[in-house]
Amino acid sequence: MTSAQTVPIRRQKTPLARFFLKPVNLFSLLILVVFIVAALLPDSALPHNPTQQSLRGRLTPPAWAESGNANNLLGTDNLGRDLLSRILRGARTSLLITSLAVFGGAIIGGTLGLLAGYFGGWFDELVGRLVDIQLAFPLILLMIAVVGVVGASTTVLVIMLAIAAWPSYARLLRGQAMSLRNLEYVDAAKALGRPSWQIALRHLAPNTLAPVIVFTTFELARTLLLESSLSFLGLGVPPPAPSWGSIVADGRSYLVDAWWVSALPGLAIVLVVLALNFLGDALRDLLDPRTRT
Question: How many domains are there within the chain?
Fold first, then answer.
């Protein structure tokens, strides 16, 4: 009698391994790393001074185009400034403003939403009405009014974008807190005499990190588009500091003859937004146990 043939057991890949095996995830991470490194480059590492003008070399095509110049790989803008250097330095401006605004909105909105969902009552009603009031104001019109009073600056732009971001976090964390506040570990913390604020911040908040991380990737993409739109309208960082939206605006009058001035910084915006959206989808699948299979 022959022994039963053994069948090798095929080990299933972990969710993290599947995350890195998907080409779209690696592409997204690569795009984000490239632009983050570009944002961290010092001015001395840039090919040219991003604010130096040269009217003799204005609207020079990219190096691969006819009559292009190898000294300006991506060409120059309407004032003769090197476009590659401006896109690299604009990455620092746009990504820094976007990150500060989103994380500021996450802290404010997340804290208010978490406490509102846990305590309920009049505090929940107050936060809900504040969210409704905020969402009733068109941000661009509000930004125009604020800039007209205090002037355009990086600080004003970060504050306005954070104001635009906090209601979404408040709604998200409120719903999460309402679904968690009646669980057993919360009742155990109450039985041990823990203060209510400590239960909300130390016991509920860590269990909301997964949806918050996923939502933040999408919020970063949305805020980057919003920041670029405001900079395009002249409501962002004042010149000569470059940002992607203002660089696109510089070339809107030359789209036929010098398409690269607007198209190349616009391509940078598209790549980062796509990378953030793809990464958000991947993180949702990775952090949600219901989608791991």
Answer: 1
Whether the CB-CB separation of 140 and 233 falls below 8 Å is answered with yes
Give domain status of residue 92, yes or no.
yes
> Is the Cβ–Cβ distance between 286 and 15 less than 8 Å?
yes
Looking up tokens 């909300």, which residue turns up?
200
**3-state class (DSSP) for residue 54:** coil
**Residue 76: strand pairing partners:** 82
pTM: 0.87
In a domain? residue 252: yes
CA distance 237 to 108: 23
User: pLDDT of 136-175, one tens digit each?
Assistant: 888 788 888 888 788 778 888 899 899 989 999 999 998 8
Q: Which residues of the chain have pLDDT under 50?
A: 1
CATH number at residue 268: 1.10.3720.10
Q: What residue numbers bound the domain in which 160 lies?
A: 22-39+71-288
